[in-house]
Hints:
It is a single chain. The chain has helices spanning 3-17, 60-72, 97-102; strands at 21-22, 27-28, 35-40, 45-50, 79-84. The chain is of the alpha+beta class and 106 residues long. The protein is globular.
Amino acid sequence: MTQEEKLKIEEKIVEYLRTVVDPEIAVDIYSLGLVYKIDLADDGALNIDMTLTAPNCPMADFIMEDVHQKMNSIKGVTSVNVNLVYEPEWTKDMMSDEAKLELGFM
């Protein structure tokens, strides 16, 4: 894939991640700062490192499945691997200003 194609796919990845909402908070996982790394290989293999707002999040399975389904639906993505990591530990400082404003932290 060309660099231009890769950039377009990466933009689509972020766009789709912004549609994955943590149902308990009603804010998307990207704006919450839960996505730590997006790595798209030239062959279309996608690796995402992400975390949750709490290690015992009751919606973890739902959120992870939503990420997998949406990433697998992107043309050009050949495989999806979502790594759930807890280092560094998530804090509300990782949220975008938009998310902080929406949740009343600003």
